[in-house]
Every structure is written in structure tokens, then in C-alpha cells.
């Protein structure tokens, strides 16, 4: 059975998990506004020690590739690439939204993971059960306005489960748009579990080319957008 290490720092949530085959044997999560760079590798080391496993026993490294916090996504991606290259094992990346959606994999309806992208926009995708406990994407992930997302969901008559730490920011708008069709993951249940990330990676193909792998941001950094806007304004003068 394959042994995998999963890393996620795409939000304030830091997650590390170890799986053996289809079983998550260890999982560590925090949700603190503290620098991930100081805590990620110590968390990895502690978890490996807890399950009495050495890095050389790992068969793959899994990483949440985004979207999410630019700095956070880069942190896990860099660490995962370094580990995979050093240990000479596969690097497998999974969308952060896909990982989040697993919190609703037994929901009979649409599952919509949301990450706040500011300025009334979100990173989101739409999933639905293909079989019990198995989700399939019916609308690919993208950066979009919250209005665009709700317009899409209004066209269906199915119940919709919203997933993610940022959902509370839009709850009033969601309720006004969808009414009793809107459901929410219980706040006591983590919406982005590193254990789910590791299990998804266990069955995922193909592996990434370590040196070519880059995170999936779905949009340009705000600083670059502002720079391009300023450049366009200068060119119009």
C-alpha cells in the first residue's frame, strides 16, 4: 500500500496528513494567522515521528495547488517540490477547491466550494455526486463574480451545499438568492482536510514534473493587476 504525505497551506488553515493506502493514519490542522513558513516542516517532522515513519518510506507527496492565498499556496508548493525532488518520489497536486468539496461528498445535490477573492469575487467550482461518496465536476473552477456564480446556481432546482471558511461572508446574499435551497457545512467540520487531500492523491494520475510544477492561482496577483492598469493608463495619455 502506498504511503503519502499531504501538505496544504492555501489559507490560514495549515494541514498535514499521512495516509497508508485508503486510510488516513495521521492528520494535523491549525487555523491560525501565523506564518506557515515557521510551522509547516516542524509539523511534518512531528507527524512522521508520531506514526514512526521516516521520509524514505513515503511513496508520494501530495500538495494543494490552489487557488487561495498567493503566499500560502507557494509555501506548500515549494516545500512539496523540495521533498519530492529530494526523496525522488512522485509529486501529485490537487485543486484546493476539489479538496474542500470532499466535505460534501455525501450530499445529494450540488456542492460548491468557495474561497473569497475580494472585491465581491470568489474562486469557486460546482460538483455533484457521480456515485455515493464520489464527486464529479460539473462546472470547472474559476475566478468569477459572486453574481455570476449565483446566476448559474439559480438556473438549477437542486439543493446547494456551500463549503469553505469564507462562506459566512456571503451567507446573507446566498440566502436571498437561493432561499431554502441553500445548505452549509457545519462549522465544526473542517472544510479542507489534508487527509482528504492525501486520499485524492493516492488515486490521482498523472504525477507532476517536479521542476515544472507551478501553483494554480486562477488570477494575477493584485499588485500585478494594479501595475498593468497603471501601465494601460499611461499608454492612453
Automatic annotation (TrEMBL):
Database matches in CDD domains: ASKHA_NBD_TsaB
Entry-linked PANTHER family: TRNA N6-ADENOSINE THREONYLCARBAMOYLTRANSFERASE, TRNA THREONYLCARBAMOYLADENOSINE BIOSYNTHESIS PROTEIN TSAB
Domain Gcp-like, chain residue ranges per copy: 34-227
Family matches, as Gene3D superfamilies: 3.30.420.40
Pfam hit, one: TsaD
TM region positions: none
Protein's name in the database: tRNA threonylcarbamoyladenosine biosynthesis protein TsaB
Domain of life the protein comes from: Bacteria
